[in-house]
Design goal:
By secondary structure, the protein is mainly α. The chain has helices at 4-16, 23-41, 46-54, 60-67, 70-85, 93-104, 143-155, 166-182, 184-191, 239-261, 294-325, 333-351, 360-376, 387-405, 419-450, 457-473, 477-495, 500-504, 515-529, 531-535, and strands at 123-124, 132-133, 159-161, 196-202, 219-220, 228-232, 506-507, 510-514. Helix 8 packs across helix 10.
């Protein structure tokens, strides 16, 4: 990915290859998918009957605008799912029928999709695309808007629909503009699967909601709300960040359309019973389980492949575009590209061991993605390697603590602080020292197992003595944190330069265990010891 020609080729494949890249082909397949669903539903719904009749002489643009509308798709999917499964509807039939009837009545010359008609201020994401942005206020007579609010409230806990204003709106629109500047073909293709962009905020204390959403919400899509991406204002700090998150979530929306129109998963696939693939670049959390099911790993590998192209392009062009979109701060795009390729390759290798979970389309999709990565990744890791992913997380955890320590209020509480704060600081300091000593022990064991030379062995032993002295003296939080960061730097200098093959070998005397597993166990145990501190 070091040449503009290579990036253009990768972009054209991701955006234009049939059947998995060509957005126009996927859109036509989506149209047939929803026509078939409406045919199944027409005996139960007057709105479905009217919507089928309205399609007869409609243009392609009308089909995309109306049958792609998120409210129309959710109403259709929800009603048909209940009919086929013999389940009770979550919303009244009258409300669902009103959504479909309203959509059927839309004029062939209407310039906006049905759900957008209730918006007093219609904001388009970009002049070259169709997505629009949710804004307040809405019209008083707004059946689709009312329905979408109910769907949102039932799907997400702790989030609320907001109307982006001022800097947030400007950054969102600039991000879309930048994405089209960087990857014009890919931007059009990815965003054609997005009909609505929602900037969601956190609910105020005491407000009621049901459903689920990540407590650390940055961005997401919901498989039962197709065509919509949800962003937090926190990821709209710059046009560069906004462009990345728009592309990221748009590719998830595209994958949802692929799931609806291609046999990606085996017909008996059950996410709850799926084999799990552990993403080693994420911190292990008890509530998150042991990994991702096959369908999630498949969509994430698609996203990371795309982000590898995005970050490679940013790396090549950010200096040229900084005058218009501002500088990039806090991120190294070349390193982000390498990280994206590494994650995609790892997931694709793991998915290769679970092809029985995939349908015919899914196996072709896996081969297609693997071919793209093989053709354009300039330095892929050996198959089965993952220690570099563990060390990436290990380094990012250290950066989190380093950033926190740089704040003026970081450190041991002053003499006026209460006893609880004192105890918390002492506990955190002890956790840092304990974790650091455990890391040194694990690193030395891994180095011994590889047999590779390392100049850090003596430095690591000396650092362990320093930590022992800090422990015996009950050192402050700041002194303990600085010693912890020094330890991580030494471990990274010792393990980082080792060849990937060194981690694939077995541990002497324990042939069933690889050196990579030793490194993973060392990093995960340290993460568990620091769990509460890292969460804060």
């Amino acid at each position: 990915m070091n040449t503009a020609q290579g990036r253009r080729q990768m972009e054209e494949i991701l955006a234009g290859d049939r059947p998995f890249g060509d957005c126009d082909y996927i859109r036509r397949r989506t149209r047939l998918h929803y026509r078939h669903r409406l045919l199944l539903l027409k005996e139960h719904s007057k709105g479905a009957h009217l919507l089928l009749a309205a399609q007869e002489d409609a243009s392609d643009a009308w089909h995309h605008q109306v049958l792609g509308d998120p409210a129309v798709r959710v109403a259709t999917d929800t009603w048909l799912s209940a009919v086929l499964g013999g389940r009770e509807l979550p919303w009244p039939e009258e409300e669902l029928d009103a959504v479909l009837e309203t959509a059927a009545a839309q004029s062939p010359r209407a310039a906006v999709p049905p759900l957008a008609e209730g918006a007093a201020d219609l904001v388009r994401l970009h002049e070259a695309g169709r997505p629009w942005v949710w804004t307040e206020p809405r019209a008083e007579a707004d059946p689709l808007g009312k329905f979408f609010r109910r769907v949102f409230s039932a799907s997400f806990h702790g989030l609320t629909l907001t109307s982006p204003e001022g800097r947030v709106r400007e950054t969102l629109l600039r991000g879309a503009e930048l994405l089209h500047e960087l990857c014009p073909v890919l931007a059009r293709s990815a965003l054609s699967h997005v009909h609505l962009v929602v900037v969601a905020g956190k609910e105020t204390p005491g407000s009621a909601s049901s459903g689920s959403a990540s407590p650390g919400f940055a961005s997401l899509t919901h498989p039962r709300i197709p065509g919509v991406i949800f962003l937090s204002a926190a990821v709209l700090g710059s046009a560069w960040q906004a462009a990345e998150y728009l592309l990221h979530e748009a590719m998830h929306a595209k994958f949802t359309d692929l799931e609806h129109t291609h046999s990606l998963l085996d017909e008996d696939y059950d996410a709850a019973a799926s084999p799990l693939i552990r993403p080693h670049w994420n911190r292990a959390r008890p509530e998150a389980g042991e990994g991702w099911p096959v369908d999630r790993a498949l969509t994430v590998s698609h996203v990371y492949t795309t982000l590898a192209l995005f970050h490679s392009t940013v790396s090549a062009r950010h200096a040229e575009l900084a005058g218009r979109y501002g500088p990039i701060t806090g991120a190294d795009p070349a390193r982000q590209a390498r990280r994206s390729f590494d994650r995609a390759q790892y997931l694709l290798h793991r998915l290769g061991g679970h092809t029985e979970q995939l349908g015919t389309g899914g196996r072709l999709f896996l081969r297609w993605l693997g071919g793209i990565n093989e053709a354009f990744d300039p330095s892929p890791a050996p198959e089965g390697a993952y220690a570099h992913l563990v060390l990436d997380l290990y380094e990012r955890e250290a950066d989190t603590i380093r950033t926190a320590l740089s704040r003026p209020d970081a450190g041991h509480p002053d003499e006026d602080a209460d006893r609880d704060a004192d105890r918390d600081a002492d506990r955190d300091a002890a956790a840092l020292r304990s974790a650091a000593r455990q890391e040194i022990s694990g690193c030395l064991a891994a180095l011994a197992a590889t047999g590779e030379p390392s100049g850090q062995r003596q430095e690591l032993a000396d650092q362990d003595s320093v930590l022992a002295q800090l422990e015996s003296s009950g050192a402050s939080f700041r002194d303990s944190a600085e010693a912890f960061l020094r330890t991580r730097d030494l471990v990274l200098r010792a393990l980082g330069p080792l060849p990937a093959a060194a981690f694939l070998g077995p541990v002497p005397g324990r042939p069933e265990e690889t050196v990579a597993e030793m490194v993973r166990a060392m990093a995960e145990e340290s993460g568990r010891r620091l769990g509460a501190l890292l969460e804060r």
